[in-house]
């Protein structure tokens, strides 16, 4: 049986940029083999030699190699031991520590707000986790408002917790999102693309006219332009990007700026 | 000590036993629990049987009624099996209408009847298009300690073997049916399907006739139903751990042996009540 | 289309064969009637009781009457309940579809459900005074009775069995509850009869089921009805019934003692086995 | 006629397959799967908030609902739901999302034979589309045993009716083991093993189809 | 599954856009979304897509006795289900208020408009008529379920063919499609629902609202009409403050929309009919949009099964042969038998005849004690009751449970009782006694 499993395995490097499916076995260069087990332990112990391989979302350790658990494109980042992960087109968000997301306030309960972030349970956000907030000076937040914040606690076993301040107590762009503008949802894959540094789509859009944009890792986008019409155009273009090639998008944009 | 270990780490506890090729209750991996059958205990039913597999206890009562055959199968009678898991058989079952497990078991029993052709529905027809027998086979689990399917199939078979149907004739002049309650005949049982269930442990080990505890810890189950000719009437593996064809073959082998045991048992018990 | 989609259904309607054998059926009834005539009205039926026989339930009991009535009971408790206040006793009564003579009971049918609900309520009436519910605040105790065969006096048997099951489950109780049924045959001036069989019950002019807490000598439930009679007549019935309860009590007690001994013996064996294996 | 020829070749054929991913806007994952004229639509929500009564402390609670096209779901649907759910559970890495609920709804669009295998394929594609973590893939394969003993792959409704036995397997992509098996009619042990071996062969073709579908879907990224 | 809440900014933005006569998807106020109709391989089966809202409809038929009040008319049955896949928050089997009102509306649109001739569905007056059943399933909810379902319903009814029947005397023959071509239903006209959503106290109205628009609307007006401009149903819900001329305006818009939709439906039906007639391809597989990257097709593929027989043979050959050794049954009493030894069960084992003697003996020794217990009761009546249990003997080797109700065939066990007779139950399912392995200790 083991031999059969090996047969299925393919060298990881050869598949970078290709579609992988759950159950696929990725083989790593031989020198990772011996110490594949206890990987994490050593990582945290800090005794690990440099060049430790990171195994990102959609992948699991399996014997000497990596087992794919999500379908999508295999990505690789060189440097250090390198990192592998799978980029997938998923819609449902699962909170991850450090992610910036847009939440909708669903309730105020005692000292915390409950926020819908699109995950499996509501996130909590303390009254005090806003810049300049004190017991007396509470932020003015209503049910139904949008909040842009960051996860400080997010794992499978605990209730996710958000804050709107960074480690130095500054808002750094987080907090309540304005009352105007519009909120809509796209796939998580598209959000990751939009958040990538120097994203072409955003650059092309910004040449149309000025607008404000907030991108949440949970697939939510808030956008506000000068007029309703302009806001709607941005919304429609971003939604359409889900299935457009760069070529098609450029054509569509050209048509718009022509108008 | 052992009890505490069992409570805290039930799976590890089992593994220790399985490694030694035995189970906490003293059985070997391929060993069934004591199987007891008693037939005819419910006099209000036309046929009945009580089957015990260790603690697991299942009772099947058959009631025969008359109805016109369905329009699209004018020469066939009906067999209507239903499995009930009442709240008294185990704590997790709620009162009220049958839940998923009971319904899945009912469907399984219906499939076994159909697949094995143990009773040919044509045999239940009295007058083509006019009158046929309806056999309601109600299987109730009284004590659920695992392996419901084996016990249910056996109880059904034993109860059907026990059924005595009164003679029904159609009066040619009046066209009405007449029932003679004094003259009773047994059903024609054409095949004797016997089920053998296995639990899969840790994706590899197969243990036969699992208890409720073993079912809980198992990663899957398989049920094989064979008839006296060694044909397969059902290979029922409702998901769970994957198995190879060779492992499945091992299950079938065990099932064939089990069939012989059970067949002998049922023959003997039927013989014991047949007036000589 | 109100079809039961959780059960396999046969044809929409079917009749028991006895319907087509009208003549023969009457004969049979007559025979039964004749057989019942010389019965001593004060006679009790043979009673078999056994407690602690189910492996999964915390407490269980099985009661069988000579007339063919078979009842199995399981009890659980206490379980945590959401609602505050003293403990609650949840009773369930189910009839196996094959329990009755004649047509098969249709589980889930409205009439069937109604009858079962009524019996469950009577069961609760009879048992509640016997259980120390105050000792189980915010908790639920549950008893389920399953009637496997109805040979008459089914509810009375269920009451006895349910009380045994609760006691077997280790629930704190003031007393056991013992059930007894009576009926008055249709014949004029007929006297009440203890523990009627199913045909007697079917023909009866009046019926009565009562539950007694024998040690306390208190009646916990009375359920009866039928063609009226003078109060003295009913008082007589009550006396007869109570007597019946008292006479059944030792047998029930005995079965509980047995169950307890068996459990102790099993525990000892297990301990011994553990000791040897260690 | 055509069937006989295929048998003579020692070959079995799958009907034309098609599949559309993510076709529903509301669910987190969706797929339509077609095998010949048999087609099933699958929609999946989750991992989402679980009802307290259904919550499991150590893994995601998976619920599978099978909706017939005519009438309400009955006992048959319930038993198939159990088969489908336990098959999905065997590959789903539910421990990664404890205390959540995953709900998979399958709607029969057209039953022209081999319905259960089509349900399995649609379910797996919906799991893929939703991006849930899976240890492996599975596919459904149905074989019919004809009265003459020949085996027939992916039978139509009529072929199923004429068959002596119909066997459906769910095959896992890892090592081609059997996840689920269910049979209708009776067959010999040899026949069952033959169908199983043949199903394992057919699985390779179906998994390749899965891969090609997903490749096409990601072709513009 | 909980539905995502609607944020304040979405609500405000949508309402502002409506005031500016702008819609999210770029439509004008009176524009309908794209309608796509696809047919299944079965007759009477279609999927209607209205934008992203999707409804499946299937018509089926069955011969049933007619309703007593209408002995010469067929029976119509309509049912819409909101499948839990259509949106989060829809639970299976729950009759929500929305579902009930939708079903009532469709019923009025399709039944009360008398669009289907029910007389032609009668086979034998008072005995057998066709019951036509229309099942609709909402598969994806993006607003305006009513219109999508009404279109799907009527299309499925038009597409349906029932088997032909003939009546000769009492004999009703139902023909298979091979014997005789199935017959279409006779449909007088096609009522179609058009929904209008109202905002800002009825100032603004939108045709064919999406789900988000429905979430911020004040009220809804549904008008069902056929292409002859006959209104079949009209219904308002929610807070609708309408002026008479607004209703008039809506009905004019409806007439235009209905004409367009009817034409589209007819074209779709014709295309499908043509494909079927000319032996072309039809069914859902044909309606999958090939150009999309989310779809993929594979032609019929061959699977090589050449050596499966050998492979199967090998597996069977390798397996151990079935064991020839197995337990033999022991009959305890007539009707009760057992195989297997050993494991104690709490139900107690059934009696074993050889041990009966032992029970007997012990029983004897206990008889006295037992009788004491019963003395009083036996005084008062001829008690037929027998004891249920043996009294307390805790001999560790043999402890049993006894059984009162002995069958007649074994009179020796009636012990002290003299009166046991006719009531002996005929079986002993529950006569049991505990048996311990003597060998164990």
Topology overview:
The complex is a heteropentamer of chains A (259), B (276), C (278), D (221) and E (441).
Chain A: H1 2-8, E1 10-11, H2 12-15, E2 19-20, E3 25-27, H3 39-45, E4 54-55, E5 59-62, E6 65-68, E7 72-77, E8 83-87, E9 100-109, E10 112-116, E11 123-126, E12 146-153, E13 161-163, E14 175-176, E15 182-185, H4 188-195, H5 200-206, E16 211-215, E17 220-225, H6 228-240, H7 246-258
Parallel strand pairs in A: 1-3, 4-8, 11-13
Antiparallel strand pairs in A: 2-7, 3-6, 5-6, 7-8, 9-10, 9-12, 10-11, 12-13, 12-14, 15-17, 16-17
Chain B: H1 2-8, H2 10-19, E1 35-39, E2 47-53, E3 56-67, E4 78-84, H3 100-116, E5 125-127, E6 131-143, H4 148-162, E7 164-170, E8 177-186, E9 194-201, E10 205-208, H5 212-217, E11 220-226, E12 232-236, H6 245-273
Parallel strand pairs in B: 4-6
Antiparallel strand pairs in B: 1-2, 2-3, 3-6, 5-6, 7-8, 9-10, 9-11, 11-12
Chain C: H1 22-36, E1 47-51, E2 59-65, E3 70-80, E4 88-95, H2 110-127, E5 139-149, H3 154-168, E6 178-184, E7 193-194, H4 198-203, E8 206-213, E9 218-226, H5 231-277
Describe the protein.
Chain A: Residues 181-229 form the K Homology domain. Chain A: It is found in: Cytoplasm; Nucleus, Nucleolus. Chain A: GO terms for molecular function: RNA binding. Chain A: InterPro entries: Exosome_RNA_bind1/RRP40/RRP4, KH_dom_type_1, KH_dom_type_1_sf, NA-bd_OB-fold, RRP40_KH-I, RRP40_N, Rrp40_S1. The complex is a heteropentamer of chains A (259), B (276), C (278), D (221) and E (441). Chain C is an alpha+beta fold and 278 residues long. Chain C has helices spanning 22-36, 110-127, 154-168, 198-203, 231-277, and strands spanning 47-51, 59-65, 70-80, 88-95, 139-149, 178-184, 193-194, 206-213, 218-226. In chain C, the strands form 2 sheets. Chain C has a 5-stranded mixed β-sheet. A 4-stranded antiparallel β-sheet of chain C has the order 7-6-8-9, with helices on both faces. In chain C, helix 3 runs parallel beside helix 5 (231-277). The termini of chain C are far apart. Chain D has a single domain, classed as Ribosomal Protein S5, domain 2. Chain D is of the alpha+beta class. In chain D, 71% of the residues are buried. In chain D, helix 2 (75-91) packs across helix 3 (115-130). A 5-stranded mixed β-sheet of chain D has the order 2-3-4-6-5. In chain D, strands 8-7-9-10 form a 4-stranded antiparallel β-sheet, with helices on both faces. The model of chain D is unreliable at 1-10 (pLDDT under 50). Chain E is of the alpha+beta class. In chain E, helix 2 (97-112) crosses helix 3. Mean pLDDT of chain E is 79; it is low at 342-441. Strand 1 (35-39) of chain B pairs antiparallel with strand 18 (336-339) of chain E, so a sheet runs across the interface.
């Amino acid at each position: 049986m083991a031999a059969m499993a090996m047969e299925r395995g393919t060298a990881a490097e050869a598949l970078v940029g290709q579609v992988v499916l759950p159950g696929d076995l990725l083989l790593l260069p031989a020198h990772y083999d011996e110490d594949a087990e206890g990987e994490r332990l050593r990582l945290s112990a800090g005794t690990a030699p440099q060049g430790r391989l990171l195994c990102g979302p959609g992948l699991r350790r399996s014997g000497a190699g990596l087992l794919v658990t999500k379908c999508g494109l295999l990505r690789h980042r060189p440097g250090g031991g390198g990192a592998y992960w799978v980029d997938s087109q998923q819609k449902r968000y699962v909170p991850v520590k450090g992610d910036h997301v847009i939440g909708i306030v669903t309730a105020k309960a005692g000292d915390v707000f409950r926020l819908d972030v699109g995950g499996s349970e509501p996130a909590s956000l303390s009254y005090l986790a806003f810049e300049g907030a004190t017991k007396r000076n509470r932020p003015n937040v209503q049910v139904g408002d949008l909040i842009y914040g960051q996860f400080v606690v997010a794992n499978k076993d605990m209730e996710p917790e958000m804050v709107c301040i960074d480690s130095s107590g500054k808002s750094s762009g987080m907090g309540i999102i304005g009352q105007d503008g519009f909120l809509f949802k796209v796939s998580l894959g598209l959000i990751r693309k939009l958040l990538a540094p120097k994203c072409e789509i955003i650059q092309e859009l910004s040449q149309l006219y000025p607008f404000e944009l907030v991108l949440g890792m949970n697939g939510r986008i808030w956008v506000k332009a000068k007029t309703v019409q302009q806001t709607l155009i941005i919304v429609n273009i971003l939604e359409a990007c889900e299935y457009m090639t760069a070529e098609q998008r450029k054509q569509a944009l050209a048509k718009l700026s022509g108008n | 000590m052992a009890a505490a270990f069992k409570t805290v780490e039930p799976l590890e506890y089992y593994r220790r036993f399985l490694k030694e090729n035995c189970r906490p209750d003293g059985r070997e991996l391929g060993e069934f629990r004591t199987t007891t059958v008693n037939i005819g205990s419910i006099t209000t039913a036309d046929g009945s049987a009580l089957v015990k597999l260790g603690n697991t206890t299942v009772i099947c009562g058959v009631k025969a009624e008359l109805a016109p055959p369905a329009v699209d199968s004018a020469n066939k009678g009906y067999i209507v099996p239903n499995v009930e898991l009442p709240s008294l058989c185990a704590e997790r079952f709620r009162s009220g209408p049958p839940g998923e497990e009971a319904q899945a078991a009912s469907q399984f029993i219906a499939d076994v009847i159909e697949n094995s052709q143990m009773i040919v529905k044509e045999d239940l027809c009295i007058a083509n298009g006019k009158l046929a027998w309806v056999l309601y086979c109600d299987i109730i689990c009284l004590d659920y300690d695992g392996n419901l399917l084996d016990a249910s199939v056996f109880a059904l078979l034993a109860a059907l073997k026990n059924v005595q149907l009164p003679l029904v004739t159609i009066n040619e002049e009046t066209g009405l049916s007449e029932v003679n309650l004094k003259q009773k005949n047994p059903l024609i049982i054409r095949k004797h399907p016997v089920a053998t269930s296995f639990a899969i442990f840790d994706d590899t080990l197969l243990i036969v006739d699992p208890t409720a505890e073993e079912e809980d810890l198992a990663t899957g189950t398989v049920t094989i139903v064979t008839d006296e000719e060694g044909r397969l009437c059902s290979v029922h593996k409702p998901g769970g751990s994957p198995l190879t064809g060779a492992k499945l073959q091992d299950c079938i082998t065990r099932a064939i042996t089990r069939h012989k045991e059970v067949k002998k048992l049922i023959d003997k018990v039927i013989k014991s009540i047949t007036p000589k | 289309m109100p079809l039961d989609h959780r059960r396999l259904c046969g044809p929409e309607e079917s009749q028991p064969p006895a319907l087509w054998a009208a003549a023969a059926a009457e004969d049979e009834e007559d025979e039964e009637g004749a057989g019942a005539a010389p019965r001593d009205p004060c006679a009790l039926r043979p009673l078999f009781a056994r407690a602690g026989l189910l492996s999964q339930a915390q407490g269980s009991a099985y009661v069988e009457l000579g007339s063919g009535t078979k009842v199995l009971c399981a009890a659980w408790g206490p379980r945590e309940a959401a609602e505050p206040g003293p403990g609650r006793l949840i009773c369930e009564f189910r009839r196996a579809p094959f329990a009755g003579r004649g047509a098969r009971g249709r589980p889930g049918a409205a009439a069937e459900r109604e009858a079962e609900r009524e019996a469950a309520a009577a069961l609760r009436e009879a048992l509640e005074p016997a259980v120390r519910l105050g000792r189980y605040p915010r908790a639920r105790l549950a008893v389920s009775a399953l009637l496997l065969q109805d040979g008459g006096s089914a509810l009375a048997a269920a009451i006895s069995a349910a009380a045994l099951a609760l006691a077997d489950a280790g629930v704190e109780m003031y007393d056991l509850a013992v059930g007894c049924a009576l009926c008055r045959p249709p014949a004029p001036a007929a006297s009440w009869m203890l523990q009627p069989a199913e045909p007697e019950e079917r023909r009866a002019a009046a019926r009565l089921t009562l539950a007694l807490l024998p040690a306390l000598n208190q009646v916990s439930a009375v359920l009866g009805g039928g063609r009226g009679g003078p109060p003295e007549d009913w008082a007589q019935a009550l006396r007869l019934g109570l007597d019946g309860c008292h006479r059944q009590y030792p047998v029930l007690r005995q079965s509980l003692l047995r169950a307890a001994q068996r459990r102790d013996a099993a525990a000892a064996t297990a301990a011994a086995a553990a000791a040897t294996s260690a | 006629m055509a069937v006989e020829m295929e048998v003579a070749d020692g070959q079995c054929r799958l009907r034309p397959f098609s599949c559309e991913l993510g076709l529903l806007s509301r669910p987190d994952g969706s797929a339509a799967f077609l095998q010949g004229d048999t087609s099933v639509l699958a929609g999946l929500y989750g991992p989402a908030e679980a009802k307290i009564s259904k919550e499991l402390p150590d893994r995601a609670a998976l619920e599978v609902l099978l909706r017939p096209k005519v009438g309400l779901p009955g006992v048959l649907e319930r038993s198939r739901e159990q088969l489908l759910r336990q098959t999905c559970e065997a590959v789903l890495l539910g421990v990664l999302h404890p205390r959540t609920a995953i709900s998979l709804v399958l709607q029969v669009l057209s039953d022209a034979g081999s319905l259960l295998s089509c349900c399995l394929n649609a379910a797996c594609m919906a799991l893929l589309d939703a991006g849930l973590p899976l240890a492996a893939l599975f596919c459904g394969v149905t074989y019919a045993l004809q009265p003459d003993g020949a085996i027939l792959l992916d039978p139509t409704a009529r072929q199923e009716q004429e068959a002596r036995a119909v066997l459906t397997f769910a095959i896992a992509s890892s090592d081609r083991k059997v996840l689920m098996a269910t049979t209708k009619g009776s067959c010999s042990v040899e026949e069952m093993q033959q169908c199983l071996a043949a199903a394992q062969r057919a699985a390779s073709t179906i998994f390749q189809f899965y891969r090609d579908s997903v490749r096409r879907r990601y072709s513009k990224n | 599954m909980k539905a995502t809440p609607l944020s304040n900014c979405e609500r405000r933005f949508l309402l502002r856009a409506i005031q500016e006569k702008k819609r999210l998807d770029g439509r004008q106020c009176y524009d309908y979304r794209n309608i796509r109709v696809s047919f299944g391989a079965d007759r009477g089966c279609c999927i209607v897509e209205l934008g992203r809202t999707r409804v499946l409809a299937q018509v089926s038929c069955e011969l049933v006795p007619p309703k007593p009040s209408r002995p010469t008319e067929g029976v119509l049955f309509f049912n819409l289900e909101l499948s839990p896949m259509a949106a989060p928050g829809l639970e299976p089997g729950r009759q929500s208020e929305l579902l009930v009102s939708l079903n009532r509306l469709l019923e009025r649109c399709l039944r009360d408009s008398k669009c289907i001739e029910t007389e032609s569905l009668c086979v034998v007056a008072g005995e057998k008529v066709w019951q036509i059943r229309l099942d609709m399933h909402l598969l994806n909810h993006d607003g305006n379920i009513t219109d999508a379902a009404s279109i799907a319903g009527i299309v499925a009814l038009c597409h349906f063919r029932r088997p032909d029947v003939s009546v000769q005397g009492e004999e009703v023959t139902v023909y298979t499609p091979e014997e005789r071509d199935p017959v279409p239903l006779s449909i007088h006209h096609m009522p179609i629902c058009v929904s209008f959503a109202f905002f800002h106290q009825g100032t603004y109205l939108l045709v064919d609202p999406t789900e988000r628009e429905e979430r911020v609307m004040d009220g809804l007006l549904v008008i069902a009409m056929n292409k002859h401009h006959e209104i079949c149903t009209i219904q308002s819900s929610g807070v609708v403050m309408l002026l008479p001329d607004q209703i008039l305006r809506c009905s004019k818009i409806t007439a235009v929309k209905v004409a367009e939709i009817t034409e589209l439906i007819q074209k779709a039906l014709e295309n499908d009919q043509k494909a079927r007639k000319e032996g072309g391809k039809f069914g859902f597989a044909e309606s999958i949009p090939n150009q999309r990257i989310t779809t993929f097709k594979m032609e019929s593929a061959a699977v090589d099964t050449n050596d499966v027989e050998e492979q199967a043979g090998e597996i069977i050959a390798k397996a151990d042969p079935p064991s020839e050794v197995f337990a033999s049954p022991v009959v305890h009493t007539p009707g009760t038998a057992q195989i297997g030894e050993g494991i104690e069960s709490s139900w107690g084992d059934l009696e074993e005849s050889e041990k009966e003697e032992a029970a007997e003996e012990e029983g004897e020794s206990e008889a006295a004690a037992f009788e004491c217990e019963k003395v009083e009761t036996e005084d008062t009546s001829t008690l037929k009751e027998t004891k249920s249990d043996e009294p307390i003997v805790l001999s560790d080797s043999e402890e049993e449970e006894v059984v009162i109700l002995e069958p007649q065939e074994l009179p020796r066990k009636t012990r002290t009782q003299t009166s046991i007779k006719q009531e002996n139950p005929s079986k002993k399912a529950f006569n049991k006694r505990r048996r311990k392995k003597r060998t164990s200790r």
